[in-house]
Structures
1.
Amino acid sequence: MSLRRAIAHRNLLYLLSLKELRTRYKKSVLGWAWSLFNPLSQMLIFTVIFTYVFVAQPIPGDPSGLKNFPLYFLSGLLPWNFFSITTSVAMANVQSGSGLIKKVSFPHEHLVFSVLIAQFVTLLIETAILTIALLIVGQNVLKWLPVVLLIYSLWALFTAGVALALSAFNVFFHDVSYLWTILSQILFYMTPVIYFTVGLPDVLVGRILKTAANWGPTGGFIVAFHNLFYDGHMPAARLLLYLALLAITSFTIGMWIFGRLSPRFAEEM
Amino acid sequence: MADTILTVDHLVKSFRIHQQKSTSLKQLIAGKGRNRFDDFIAVNDVTFDVREGEVFGIIGQNGSGKSTLLKCMAGILQPNSGRVVVFRRMGALLELGAGFHPELSGRENVFLNAAILGMGRKEITARFDEIVDFSGLRAFIDQPVKTYSSGMYVRLAFAVAINVDPQLLIVDEILAVGDVSFQRRCLEKFVEFRNEGRTIVLVTHDLGSVKSLCDRAIWLEHGKTVDAGDPGDLVEAYTERMLGAEAPAADGSVRRGSGEIKIVQIEMFVNGGATAVKRCRTNDDVVIRLHYEAEKTIPQPVVGIEIEILGGATVTAPNTRDVGLVPATMSGAGVIEIALANISLVPGTYDIHTSITDFNRALVYDNLHEALRFDVMTGKPYETGGVVTMRPAWKLD
């Protein structure tokens, strides 16, 4: 029901997303270049730390044979940033939309979806840069791009579900956004963005981390992205099935929670 | 009879008033806090229909539940019980410019705001020029709205809102924006809307516009329907109740003067009645009685009263010198009567100030400011504007 209403107001979604994109870098000299500096600087930091501080050898991609820390980080970091920024900005966007929510009747989901779409556009631009970098070092990722797009869509669906649920709860309890800052940190380290799961020590903590990294909700997606960008092979069929299931479950639950709580937004804000 | 376009059916909306407003997970987990609340019933079992093509007014004091009712009708709030059924495309104007983004240009905001109000992309493109022309801001349309003055902001917002083109328009107190000329254009647009046979639901404190614009009205008090029907009758009953409900102000009178002679009491009688009152109706025969006491003999005193509308202008200020009724002396105690036949005051609250001076009006013996406050209620003729009625005789061919 609420999904149908959301689709009926697709023009609003389009314009809200446009607003997100247009206002993001207003009044800054470098503008859109900033969206590239953030992952690039993170990549640089991780590379320096893992090459000179915690000395580690990058594990070569199989079958690509690629041996490159920065590109390994980037292929997981870009989707991760999409997830983490979308969830936190969506919460803030619903909260700051209180003026609108109290005065106009419209599908509140669009406050979340517009953030999602704007961040997805950013992700696509960043991915284009990553693709160019990979092509320069001789990694032919072009043939995997359709699969990347498919998994990106599942990842967006998964992210949408989490963002919807968090934003809805956050209207009632502002603690949610603070709690999420901590939880997403934990989730970040349980996801193999800055380490190789193969290299984890075979002790209890290492084994737990390895399981979480490979099969945790976010870990599974990042593994698939590493497969495609770094290793250069198709992710396993059961992994793809698992990711699809995760995405649909997350989105369904998120929509259900948001749909249940959003009629009460106007009086809670 | 015209079709029903909106039905409000036994609508109830209550709010929880929390003892502590702050909500945190700690309170939830502790199982406290969230449970401590009172229910405040803002709209209590209200039922009415709005028919196609009519202008429907909602009147009531602040806090009577008008805005809550409107928000339920607009779909912003969910009723606790009862329902609202809307049969046509509805546009609700509860606040102008909701969702305007300061960094975006006027053009971008027009598109965004119109989309928020429910318009499709093609529709907006088709109406864009009309919107810009109505706002009169073509020269500034590509500037960010943060550079707009508040007047420009409101004009653009109203231009968008009025062009949303709904079959049913819900309006909350927004006809009073902008400068006088813009207000007139808004009113014209509004009348144009009505003449096109569209339905309007109007909430306003301006009872004059309820009487002049509305076909039917409903009167809310404490969330309940007091009465519904003809707006003229309703507004009359409403003003009467509102003025009557207010207790006469505590004696705020201030006395000045040398005090050799004083007004010690002031009374008002209506239509030959024997008991003093503080209320009359337009066209009543009113008698003001001033009781005076003098300490010594005062030569040639001039007695005057002044009637002033509450917080406003002096309506009239007669005195005994102007009518050549100055006695040679005045002493002891006595009564002065001023008869005001067929009083011309329109409904409202008025103050009477009294004064006793010497013949040259230079020496003030006694001046009692706000000696009596009284209310004028609806009588014949009935006029909503102005201060006095001139008892006009209309002739229409």
2.
Amino acid sequence: MRRNRAAIAWGVVGVLAVLVAWEVYKFLGPAEGFVVGAITGETGSGVMLLPRTNDRAMPHIWEMVARLFQSTSGGDTPPLIVPVLTAALTTLGIAAVGWLIGVAVGVLLGLVMQRWRLAEWGLLPWIVVSQTVPLIAFAPLIASIGSQVDRAGTVPWPQWLSVAVIASYLAFFPVAVGVLRGLEAPDRIHLDLMRSYAAGYWATLFRLRLPAAVPHLLPALRLAAANAVVGAVVAEVSIGMRGGIGRMLIQLAGQGSSDPAAPWGPTFGSIALGLVAAGSVALVGIALKNYRRGEATA
Amino acid sequence: MTATTELAVRVTGVGKTFPTKAGDVVALTGVDLTVAAGEFVSLIGPSGCGKSTLLRLIADLDGASSGSLEIFGKPAKQARIDQDYGIAFQQAGLLPWRTVAGNIELPLELHGMAKRARAARVAELAELVGLSDFVTRYPDQLSGGMQQRVAIARALAAQPRLLLMDEPFGALDEMTREYLQGELTRIADDTGAAVVFVTHSIPEAVFLSDRVVVMSPRPGRITDILDMTLGGTRDDALRESPKYFERVTAVREALHGAPVERANER
């Protein structure tokens, strides 16, 4: 219990440190930044070594927070936090679908690779290579396949599904690798024991390999959740889907010079999104806590 | 022991070679051994003598390179499938996510025993190894000796007529070890199971066994088989008796291949 409290305290200190660093730099740093090799009269020339600290480039933290509660775009529009939360929830839903697809595909790949060594040799290099394909290159492809399927009319394929599939592309990777490692985690003695019970593949899988994989699986699921959120945000931007937090970020960043605190709204929204996603996986971890016990050595 | 001397284990001309990059390594060669039903036989010898390998062959965890193994008259593989033996290793090897009861009932669960029958059997086994108060605990909440008792209960769960044990007390402290040795002889008597027991401790082999099989390395083979004839009761008094020391000396001499000088007898 005391360790828990200390962990929470240090977490708070960590967040505060970032906020303090922001404000301290804003206070001490040069308002127009520090640029070397600038040519007079030519805007944007030279190399900026220290970023600008004026209110347009670095709004105060309290301004960012206050902006959340001011109306979105003047007049009767609701406070910024309302569209931010709506957009964040939309993206969270899409990321969750992407996470589920990614986990399903990852678990399946992990199972196949563990079962057949040949499949591991054949698949694992491709799985690793798949992650080097830039999402930006890959997203429009999925979007166009999706819209073609949708136009064909037999199966509806809304735009958000394309985003979810793209998110799953990032999410499946840690799961596939984690499941493979986890399924191979049981001790030799446990495998011998199952053999002595004449237990077949499925019995060994459910009684031994899957439970033993849990400690490897949980970090993989958490990584997958973070990846799914990043993937969903990037995919929204690159295929131009409306309604999510990614699109909102781009939109408000475009108005940044006139309303510098506004883009921080969706930024906070996407941070919250990531935390909720990772936190949900932590709940899964609590539910599976018995599978994370270590056997005390004799 | 029945007069008809039904054989629990018959090993005939068994050899085992492991292929390695540097050539084949002969782990066992020309092993002949029989274990009668209800008999307690220890395999003893220095490391590399193939005693654990022999046990693994009997358990059909590895296949023999030559010769034949019969367990209760069946090929080793069939005996494994029929659950004719229970096995325990040096590490308890309990599944950490299962309670004591869950670990003991694992083999029963795998063979489709009904839940109620399982619960009854678990209660019986927990009683037998003296862990009735701990059935809901998890392995990480038990001492090493208790974990090993759970492993023994698990090995006994399916009521095997043969118990295979690979240095099960090797990782325990001396006190726990002696206590569990006493318990094991009692359990073996109660269940009437034959036991093949791998150890590198001479006193342990002598105290437990009807016969001690002495093995030697490079290549692994049986060099001697000694009858203990210490009678039925195995208790602490036996550990003090001259007969016991005599057997310990006999096994030690068999292991070293020459009479050991005994200063206290001059």
3.
Amino acid sequence: MQGFWQRFLGNPRVTLSLLWLGFIVAVAAAAPLLAPTSPFAIVSKPFSPPFGEFLLGTDSLGRSLLAGLIHGARTSLLIAIIATLAAVAFGTLIGSVAGFYGGIIDDVLMRLSEFFQTIPSFIFAIVLVAILAPSAYSLVIAIATVSWPPIARVVRGEVISIKSREFVQAAIVVGQRDMAILVGQVLPNALSPLIVTGSLLVANAILIESALSFLGLGAPDLMSWGFQIGAGRAFLRDAWWLVTVPGVAILLTVLAINLVGEGLNDALNPRLRDL
Amino acid sequence: MSDAVLTIENLSVALPSWADRPLAVDSVSLEVLRKEILCVVGESGSGKSVMAKSILRLLPAPHVRVAGGRIMYEGKDLLTLPPDDIRAVRGGRIAMIFQEPMVSLNPLMTIGRQTDEIIAVHTRMRTPERRKRIIEVFRDVRLPEPERILRSYPHELSGGQRQRVMIAMALALEPSLIIADEPTTALDVTTQAQILRLLKELQDRHGTAILFITHDFGVVAEIADRVAVMHRGKLVEQERVGDVLLRPRHQYTRALIAAVPSLTPRRVAHGSPSQSAGPLLLSVSGVAKTYPARGGQFSLSRRRVSAVAGVSLEIAKGRSLALVGESGSGKSTLARCIVGLERADHGAILLEGSDIAGLSRAELRPYRKALQMIFQDPFASLNPRWCVADIIAQGPIVNGTPRKTALGEAAELLRLVGLDPKAAARYPHEFSGGQRQRICIARALAVKPKLIIADEPVSALDVSVQKQVLDLLDELRTSFDLSMLFITHDLRVAAHVCEEVAVMKDGLIVERGATTDIFAMPRHEYTKALLAAVPGREWQQNVS
């Protein structure tokens, strides 16, 4: 395990990304302290430029951009992480059952996941949010619903290859129950690809959440980065910072998560790089 | 000196910093003479393969690299040759044959094209000439119907045929030296015997020098002219074959030779009356198992391949039976049926009188305690994420023993299988192959079974470790009052541990009886062939 941390943290891209993500998470956690007033509160005249009374200026209604950004970090991260956890949990369940039992169960579950994969995922997410009415819950449900099939496929593949290994057969011979074998023997060995796919899914979830909020389908009572871009879009030529600052925040966060995911992959499968 | 084809002088190969020793090969000097077969013998990890690979500069750079020395071939140092020249030597002047022919051949190219490529790269021959040459070498290595082989893909050939193709490829350009890295280790005994005979014969005919790498002294006795023994990167002995085999000087060589399981069959234990042993523990009758044949990807055929075609056998309490056969004979499938990893299509499997054939996994659970299995690959059969104590205690815990008691018993079992009880807290990757197999044995014993099915438990281990594990199994058998079904392809191993032998071929048992009888007077043709194919048979008979 020591080798893992060395490889993981020794990668400069990972260190930088982790610093950025740590910063974002700290900001999100401390949001009520850093910006005690509601991000929707009108605090000044509209379109005041950055580095004036407010560090990043104000938007078309006179709301502080910085306060919005701080609370937006909270919304984006929370929704993305919860949605990813839900997707990973569901995808792992479906994938491991399909892979472990095989046969008809596998066929049915995989056709089901293909059904979800054939629908363009963003349009599907829009439809789901529209049906469920925009709220934080429906965002989580929509994002999770469109993200679980890749997880299920990854887990299924791993489970199929691991279950034919002899230590699983030995567990069967010793008389362990199927569920105990699946949870105790098979899944722990499928963890590394799962962690990598899951971490990349968080980035994807942030993108979907931002895009939905941009379209006005986000949670109406929560400030988010996508919502800020959507609201500032009409004033791009007059007040470019309204769009640029949250856009850069999304870009850097998604990039950082991707780099961490890639770093995890390299650190968990060292042989891929060595040979 | 002028007679040497290849001279290796003070060769050292460095390993990366994280390896267990700094040098894989430590100032080795040896020479391969014209028209001789030099066998390099050693355990895995002795550096013999690394040494062979460094000759053709095939080391996985940059981690493993040559640290010093010279490799002289035709007056030039291969280690300093420019890349273009070394390419001309590879395949052209020095050819190499690898252990696993399936991996060494490109699965998407026909055999003909792959062989043709080698000749085309190294010579200026035109297509019809090349074709003639290919057919010639295929005849040379005794491949049946060379025209058909040319058009086949690697998966359509048997293991032995694939290795013949590899040898044909090596011979195609009439090299002056062939390096063969364990070329018969992955093959069945009878195929191995044929390939060894072929190599010897080709070498006589063409006068090619062969550097033959092996871990098996039986093979050495079959083909070597001279022997070089390697131990932890150092050359410990280099002599004519007769001297090494009959009067080994270095103690390591002596240990290696002593570890070769002897062909002397085991007597029925303790002079107990031969057939009227205790009550039957396991009785298998008429078990059959077929698999759907894998046709082409789109084929609609429902052809089925029969793996086990109606096998009956019995094991009495306290007895051990060796099931001997080559790969594909159905012996592993039979074992998997008995232990419930597969369901037999027909037949009855009676364990202490109750039929366990066709039971589901859940229904089988009450019988698990009586029946345990030891698997072939000690590297795949231990969960890498569990510590040793948990692995061993798993069975008892599943069967209701309190965790604490089970862990205590696990420590005791570790001692019994010859490992330090402190090993309990460590993880499988910290152990060598032999030690892992000991852990597997401890796991199988943990539920106090009556019958252990051992599926090739030593075939993945070095010869020197094999013997220790076999002796351990033998010892535990008496102390735990176990019966054993021992599956192996190696008659020497069967002779070492079992009083009874059943020979299996094409899903059927062709001959069975007491080991002493079968070895003294094999009746079935196939048994005779198997016995005749045991490498080093004559040498062992001379010694004993």
4.
Amino acid sequence: MKVVTDPAKLLLERMLRLLRWRVWVQEKLQPTEWQITLLWAGFAGFLGALSSLVFQGLAEGAHQLLTGSNAGVVESMKQLPWWAVLALPAVGGLLAGIVLMLGKHLTKGQSSTDYMEAISIGSGHVPIRASLVKSTAALFSIGSGGSIGREGPMVQLAAVMASFIGRWRQFTPPQLRLMVACGAAAGIASAYNAPIAGSFFVAEIILGTIAMESLGPLAVSAVVAAMTVRVLTSEAQLYKVPEFRLSSPLEMPAYIALGVIAGVLAPWFLRSLKRAEQIFIATKLPLVARMTLGGLIVGALAIQVPEVCGNGYSVVVTILKGQVLWTTLLLFVACKWLATASSFGSGAPGGVFTPSLFMGAGAGFLFGQAVHAIWPGGAVDPRAFALVGMGAFLSAVSHAPVMAVIMLFEMTLSYDIILPLMLCSVVAYYTAKGLEGRSLYSEVLKKKAAEVSGDAGFGRGQVAELMKSKPPTLTRNAHFAEIARMFLATRVNNLYVTDAQARFLGAVSLHDIKPYLGEPELAELVIANDILREEFPRVGPESTLSEALGRFLNFEGERLPVVDSSGKLLGSLSKGDLLLALVEMRKKPLVV
Amino acid sequence: MTDLRVNSGEEAIRALHQRLRASTPEVRDAEQFMHDLLERAALSSVCIADDVALPHARTTAVGRIVLAVARMAGPVAFDAEHPRVRLVFLIGTPKAAVSEYLQTVAALSRMLKNVTTRAALLGAPTEAEFRAVLARAQQR
């Protein structure tokens, strides 16, 4: 007998099978919104690592193009004639300035590019064009030997990628901010091959919290980024250091003293960068001329001390090997300080993270040598002081001692030094904080926060600010097939039912229909109205976040409908967003 | 009820509603129940086969699930697509009983999907035999 089958029925059966499968997967794996966020965080980490590698490759390409050498920045500078050394950073500054100037036309109307601002006080939106312009300019500053770090643009690009994912997936502002934070963590993890420090950098400095709601996705993103870099470049730790150890407890006083010194020097270092910026602005020169001048100063210093060029990585390696005389190092540190202030002050886009490590290594080594000369037992190996100095200086500059300790450990994989490193970093942090309330990053954030209107962030702490508008809805006479299709397409567990005036009537629960997905006959009869739960909990747009949390306490779902006083459905509130916002609100006083 | 003589789907619903109202105190608000039944039928078809209709309502008017069954004496038009309905199962479920409602409707759908059962119900000579066929089908 020939079986005649209705194609519409076949389609319905197929759809119900798919929905059954989805429910099965959901029940077995039970992916919550948090778990899905982890997946996207991992993807952000992967893209962040790729963008970092591409930037690194382009920076090296720009350097080769400008110097004709594929050696490191310092080595290339040593090979060039004096006039080229003088001119090169200036040409780099000029090109970077031109890119920024031309880029202004392209990026008109775009908001600030700063990823920290986007995470802390903004909407999580990092503009793509403006970031690309800034990164292109950074290629010239870095490629020409400017005394500036690569990590800034690398983190920026990774954050842009993450922001792009978030906007594509139409994440709510708290989710988008978390996604950008994941991008930043991936950027740090890629730049320094330091996934733990990458996570803590963002958690401690930008988010101001190490709550698992945010630290989990940050860690996943950073791990994926570090894995990607390791697979694609076979890189191990950044600094290969000899085995250092605490030779005797008698060394501890010297380490404490180093902590105090780093804590005093770091605010000076920051103030000098700020002062340099003010001096450059006071010249009233246009940006292109300022950046050329900044490059020229670096070039002039580099004629005698080519080690001032670049982010200072190769010199740090030399210091950690102990292959430098203290007199030479004193000159390096002084010139590097001046060069970094010139590059940073003139407006060269880049980071001062690695230059900070240079300053710390230099100061630590010099101090260690001094103590060693007076009392050898108090500082047995000055190179260990260089390593600890790096952590202490970073801790004092960033006001993030946990991140600094972890980063040093990850960059060197030297655990033996952990005791003095921890103590010294904490002492440096408290000293710096006592002298100067602002860190390298809080300065930027405070300035930006003051510029942002009171409406940004969670000023009023109301549900409307977190609500995701246009949730998927059904009409009351939607058939089972349409309900199944929408459940398949939207990945929600409850579909809201509205009338023609968009008034909320109730919700259809996937849980209710789950046992009947194998019955297509039922599908022809049942409509949304038949299985509507009118008593479904809801929340008002003006409810406070704690009121909303109260509603979630008695509700097993992940989302609540937001309904105004006239009964109109305005959007939906996710439990994940609510918890993130509550975490953000808790740390808000740190930022403003 | 067997061999109910009505001229339209609405008349069939009214007759079954009347029967339920008379036979059980669980129908607490007869007018509201009727209103909800007709409103549901107006929203979308209540037929699951050419000759079977399941008018139903989730309503505040009943205290627990109520069910009335009737065989029409002749074909009755429930809507344009179902002009020859013979078997009508009227269901009323309390508002909150979504799962129970689905359970009942699913059980009836399964039972009435069976062509033999449908033929036996249509061919039962007496109300007693009609009930016996229903009971046997339910046991299966």
